[in-house]
Amino acid sequence: MAYSDSTIQTYQYIPVRKSFELLLVGRYKSCCLMQASHHMIADELYLCTAGTDGYLAFFNLTHPLRSKGITVHDGRLLRRTSVPSPTATAKWQYRTAIHQSSIKSMTTVRIDAHTLLLASGGDDNALAFTLARFSSSSAPSFSTLLLPTAHASAITASLTCPSSPSDESTETMRFATTSNDQRLKLWGVTLDTALPGVQGLQVQRIGNEASPVADAGGMAVLNDGMSAAGEEESGRAKIVLVGVGVDVWAV
Protein backbone atom coordinates (compact mmCIF):
# COMPACT_ATOMS: atom_id res chain seq x y z
CA MET A 1 0.00 0.00 0.00
CA ALA A 2 1.18 3.53 -0.83
CA TYR A 3 0.11 6.59 1.13
CA SER A 4 -0.13 10.34 0.57
CA ASP A 5 2.52 10.98 3.25
CA SER A 6 5.09 9.08 1.11
CA THR A 7 5.02 5.94 3.26
CA ILE A 8 4.61 2.38 2.02
CA GLN A 9 3.38 -0.75 3.79
CA THR A 10 3.49 -4.37 2.63
CA TYR A 11 1.12 -6.96 4.10
CA GLN A 12 0.78 -10.73 3.88
CA TYR A 13 -2.48 -12.58 4.29
CA ILE A 14 -2.19 -15.60 6.63
CA PRO A 15 -4.98 -18.09 5.71
CA VAL A 16 -4.71 -20.18 8.89
CA ARG A 17 -5.19 -17.09 11.03
CA LYS A 18 -7.59 -15.40 8.59
CA SER A 19 -5.78 -12.12 9.11
CA PHE A 20 -3.24 -9.79 7.55
CA GLU A 21 0.25 -9.34 8.93
CA LEU A 22 2.21 -6.13 8.39
CA LEU A 23 5.60 -7.18 7.01
CA LEU A 24 7.33 -3.99 5.95
CA VAL A 25 7.09 -0.24 6.34
CA GLY A 26 9.10 2.40 4.54
CA ARG A 27 9.17 5.97 3.32
CA TYR A 28 10.12 7.48 -0.01
CA LYS A 29 10.46 11.23 0.57
CA SER A 30 7.61 13.66 1.33
CA CYS A 31 5.50 13.62 -1.84
CA CYS A 32 2.23 11.77 -2.31
CA LEU A 33 2.65 8.29 -3.79
CA MET A 34 0.18 7.63 -6.61
CA GLN A 35 1.12 4.11 -7.76
CA ALA A 36 2.86 1.04 -6.31
CA SER A 37 3.60 -2.44 -7.66
CA HIS A 38 5.76 -5.45 -6.74
CA HIS A 39 8.19 -6.98 -9.24
CA MET A 40 10.27 -10.15 -9.08
CA ILE A 41 13.70 -9.53 -10.60
CA ALA A 42 15.75 -12.74 -10.72
CA ASP A 43 15.77 -13.80 -7.05
CA GLU A 44 15.01 -10.39 -5.61
CA LEU A 45 11.71 -8.65 -4.88
CA TYR A 46 11.36 -4.95 -5.66
CA LEU A 47 8.63 -2.43 -4.94
CA CYS A 48 8.22 0.32 -7.54
CA THR A 49 6.45 3.53 -6.56
CA ALA A 50 5.38 6.56 -8.61
CA GLY A 51 4.68 9.89 -6.95
CA THR A 52 3.68 13.49 -7.46
CA ASP A 53 7.33 14.45 -7.96
CA GLY A 54 7.40 12.64 -11.32
CA TYR A 55 9.91 9.98 -10.23
CA LEU A 56 9.82 6.20 -10.27
CA ALA A 57 11.49 4.81 -7.13
CA PHE A 58 12.56 1.25 -6.37
CA PHE A 59 12.74 -0.42 -2.96
CA ASN A 60 14.63 -3.72 -2.70
CA LEU A 61 12.51 -5.76 -0.27
CA THR A 62 14.65 -8.91 -0.35
CA HIS A 63 16.84 -8.25 2.69
CA PRO A 64 14.09 -6.78 4.93
CA LEU A 65 11.92 -9.82 4.17
CA ARG A 66 14.70 -12.18 5.26
CA SER A 67 14.43 -10.73 8.77
CA LYS A 68 10.82 -11.95 8.69
CA GLY A 69 11.88 -15.45 7.63
CA ILE A 70 10.78 -14.89 4.02
CA THR A 71 13.09 -15.71 1.12
CA VAL A 72 12.80 -15.47 -2.66
CA HIS A 73 13.42 -18.66 -4.64
CA ASP A 74 12.58 -19.39 -8.28
CA GLY A 75 10.29 -16.38 -8.45
CA ARG A 76 8.34 -17.37 -5.34
CA LEU A 77 8.23 -16.12 -1.77
CA LEU A 78 8.96 -18.88 0.77
CA ARG A 79 8.33 -18.45 4.48
CA ARG A 80 10.27 -20.58 6.94
CA THR A 81 8.10 -19.70 9.93
CA SER A 82 4.63 -18.33 10.57
CA VAL A 83 5.53 -16.91 13.97
CA PRO A 84 4.92 -13.13 14.02
CA SER A 85 8.06 -11.00 14.29
CA PRO A 86 8.76 -7.25 14.48
CA THR A 87 7.90 -5.23 11.39
CA ALA A 88 10.88 -4.70 9.08
CA THR A 89 11.90 -1.41 7.49
CA ALA A 90 12.45 -0.94 3.76
CA LYS A 91 14.40 1.92 2.14
CA TRP A 92 14.30 3.11 -1.44
CA GLN A 93 17.56 2.56 -3.32
CA TYR A 94 17.11 3.82 -6.86
CA ARG A 95 14.96 6.41 -8.58
CA THR A 96 14.68 8.00 -12.01
CA ALA A 97 12.91 11.18 -13.19
CA ILE A 98 10.16 10.52 -15.74
CA HIS A 99 7.42 13.20 -15.72
CA GLN A 100 7.29 16.91 -14.90
CA SER A 101 4.85 16.33 -12.03
CA SER A 102 2.42 13.63 -10.87
CA ILE A 103 2.54 10.13 -12.33
CA LYS A 104 -1.13 9.21 -12.42
CA SER A 105 -0.96 5.78 -14.07
CA MET A 106 1.52 2.95 -14.48
CA THR A 107 1.57 -0.51 -16.01
CA THR A 108 4.45 -2.95 -16.43
CA VAL A 109 5.60 -5.69 -18.80
CA ARG A 110 8.33 -8.14 -17.79
CA ILE A 111 10.74 -8.44 -20.73
CA ASP A 112 13.07 -11.03 -19.19
CA ALA A 113 14.42 -12.04 -15.79
CA HIS A 114 16.35 -8.77 -15.42
CA THR A 115 14.37 -6.24 -17.48
CA LEU A 116 11.09 -4.39 -17.02
CA LEU A 117 9.23 -2.08 -19.40
CA LEU A 118 7.14 0.44 -17.47
CA ALA A 119 4.52 2.57 -19.24
CA SER A 120 3.45 5.63 -17.25
CA GLY A 121 1.11 8.56 -17.81
CA GLY A 122 1.38 11.88 -16.09
CA ASP A 123 -0.20 15.23 -15.32
CA ASP A 124 2.06 16.62 -18.06
CA ASN A 125 -0.07 14.85 -20.73
CA ALA A 126 2.94 12.68 -21.57
CA LEU A 127 3.20 8.92 -22.01
CA ALA A 128 6.57 7.45 -21.03
CA PHE A 129 8.08 4.04 -21.72
CA THR A 130 10.92 3.29 -19.30
CA LEU A 131 13.29 0.34 -19.64
CA ALA A 132 14.65 -0.76 -16.27
CA ARG A 133 17.58 -3.16 -16.57
CA PHE A 134 18.80 -4.80 -13.36
CA SER A 135 22.16 -6.44 -12.72
CA SER A 136 23.50 -8.49 -9.83
CA SER A 137 26.88 -6.74 -10.05
CA SER A 138 25.92 -3.07 -10.48
CA ALA A 139 23.13 -0.53 -10.04
CA PRO A 140 20.21 -0.81 -12.46
CA SER A 141 20.10 1.35 -15.58
CA PHE A 142 17.03 3.35 -16.60
CA SER A 143 16.28 4.80 -20.03
CA THR A 144 13.04 6.51 -21.05
CA LEU A 145 11.25 7.27 -24.30
CA LEU A 146 8.82 10.15 -23.70
CA LEU A 147 5.82 11.04 -25.88
CA PRO A 148 5.15 14.60 -24.64
CA THR A 149 1.73 15.16 -26.23
CA ALA A 150 0.28 11.67 -26.11
CA HIS A 151 -3.03 13.13 -24.86
CA ALA A 152 -4.52 16.62 -24.65
CA SER A 153 -4.74 16.43 -20.85
CA ALA A 154 -3.56 14.34 -17.90
CA ILE A 155 -3.31 10.59 -18.54
CA THR A 156 -5.36 9.05 -15.75
CA ALA A 157 -5.25 5.32 -16.54
CA SER A 158 -3.17 2.85 -18.52
CA LEU A 159 -2.97 -0.90 -18.90
CA THR A 160 -1.26 -3.67 -20.82
CA CYS A 161 -3.60 -5.19 -23.41
CA PRO A 162 -3.52 -8.94 -24.03
CA SER A 163 -2.10 -10.06 -27.34
CA SER A 164 -4.69 -11.18 -29.83
CA PRO A 165 -4.38 -14.15 -32.23
CA SER A 166 -5.21 -11.68 -34.99
CA ASP A 167 -2.16 -9.52 -34.20
CA GLU A 168 0.18 -9.26 -37.17
CA SER A 169 3.19 -9.76 -34.92
CA THR A 170 3.39 -11.61 -31.63
CA GLU A 171 6.42 -9.42 -30.88
CA THR A 172 4.20 -6.34 -30.52
CA MET A 173 3.17 -5.32 -27.02
CA ARG A 174 -0.06 -3.35 -26.77
CA PHE A 175 -0.92 -0.66 -24.26
CA ALA A 176 -4.11 1.34 -23.70
CA THR A 177 -4.34 4.82 -22.19
CA THR A 178 -7.15 7.20 -21.36
CA SER A 179 -7.27 10.77 -20.20
CA ASN A 180 -9.41 13.68 -19.11
CA ASP A 181 -9.64 14.50 -22.81
CA GLN A 182 -12.07 11.53 -23.08
CA ARG A 183 -9.97 9.68 -25.63
CA LEU A 184 -9.06 6.00 -25.54
CA LYS A 185 -5.77 5.36 -27.31
CA LEU A 186 -3.95 2.14 -28.18
CA TRP A 187 -0.20 1.90 -28.61
CA GLY A 188 1.86 -0.82 -30.28
CA VAL A 189 5.38 -1.24 -28.90
CA THR A 190 8.24 -3.36 -30.19
CA LEU A 191 11.64 -3.79 -28.56
CA ASP A 192 14.99 -4.90 -29.93
CA THR A 193 16.89 -5.88 -26.76
CA ALA A 194 20.17 -6.05 -28.66
CA LEU A 195 20.27 -2.25 -28.92
CA PRO A 196 21.29 -0.08 -25.94
CA GLY A 197 18.92 2.13 -23.96
CA VAL A 198 15.66 2.89 -25.79
CA GLN A 199 17.25 2.80 -29.25
CA GLY A 200 15.50 -0.49 -29.89
CA LEU A 201 12.12 0.78 -28.67
CA GLN A 202 9.56 1.60 -31.36
CA VAL A 203 6.15 3.04 -30.42
CA GLN A 204 3.19 3.50 -32.78
CA ARG A 205 -0.30 4.76 -32.02
CA ILE A 206 -2.66 2.12 -33.41
CA GLY A 207 -6.00 3.37 -32.07
CA ASN A 208 -7.63 6.68 -31.11
CA GLU A 209 -11.32 6.79 -30.20
CA ALA A 210 -13.61 9.16 -28.32
CA SER A 211 -15.26 7.87 -25.13
CA PRO A 212 -18.47 9.20 -23.54
CA VAL A 213 -17.08 8.46 -20.06
CA ALA A 214 -16.01 11.67 -18.32
CA ASP A 215 -13.29 11.83 -15.65
CA ALA A 216 -12.02 8.35 -16.49
CA GLY A 217 -9.93 7.05 -13.61
CA GLY A 218 -9.30 3.38 -14.29
CA MET A 219 -9.21 0.56 -16.82
CA ALA A 220 -9.14 -3.21 -16.54
CA VAL A 221 -9.08 -6.21 -18.86
CA LEU A 222 -12.60 -7.62 -18.98
CA ASN A 223 -11.95 -10.43 -21.45
CA ASP A 224 -8.73 -11.52 -23.15
CA GLY A 225 -10.49 -12.73 -26.29
CA MET A 226 -10.16 -16.40 -25.34
CA SER A 227 -12.74 -18.85 -24.00
CA ALA A 228 -12.28 -20.84 -20.79
CA ALA A 229 -11.08 -23.73 -22.95
CA GLY A 230 -8.39 -21.57 -24.48
CA GLU A 231 -10.17 -21.19 -27.81
CA GLU A 232 -10.46 -17.89 -29.60
CA GLU A 233 -13.87 -16.26 -29.00
CA SER A 234 -13.80 -13.10 -31.05
CA GLY A 235 -10.10 -12.55 -31.67
CA ARG A 236 -10.33 -9.25 -29.77
CA ALA A 237 -9.79 -8.58 -26.09
CA LYS A 238 -12.23 -6.41 -24.16
CA ILE A 239 -11.33 -3.71 -21.67
CA VAL A 240 -13.59 -1.75 -19.35
CA LEU A 241 -13.07 1.96 -18.79
CA VAL A 242 -14.57 3.54 -15.65
CA GLY A 243 -15.20 7.12 -14.57
CA VAL A 244 -18.50 8.98 -14.55
CA GLY A 245 -20.01 5.93 -16.18
CA VAL A 246 -18.64 2.66 -17.59
CA ASP A 247 -17.56 1.85 -21.14
CA VAL A 248 -16.50 -1.50 -22.67
CA TRP A 249 -14.27 -1.62 -25.70
CA ALA A 250 -13.14 -4.47 -27.96
CA VAL A 251 -9.46 -3.92 -28.75
Structure report:
With 251 residues, this protein is an all-beta fold. It has one helix at residues 62-66, and strands spanning 7-14, 19-27, 33-41, 44-51, 55-60, 70-73, 76-79, 88-97, 103-112, 115-122, 127-133, 141-147, 155-161, 173-179, 183-191, 201-210, 214-223, 238-250.
What's the short version?
The protein is mainly β. The chain is built from one helix and 18 strands.
Task: Name the features.
251 residues; mainly beta; six-stranded mixed β-sheet; four-stranded antiparallel β-sheet; 1 helix; 2% helix
Secondary structure elements and pairings:
Blueprint: E1 7-14, E2 19-27, E3 33-41, E4 44-51, E5 55-60, H1 62-66, E6 70-73, E7 76-79, E8 88-97, E9 103-112, E10 115-122, E11 127-133, E12 141-147, E13 155-161, E14 173-179, E15 183-191, E16 201-210, E17 214-223, E18 238-250
Parallel strand pairs: 2-8
Antiparallel strand pairs: 1-2, 3-4, 4-5, 5-8, 6-7, 9-10, 10-11, 11-12, 13-14, 14-15, 15-16, 17-18
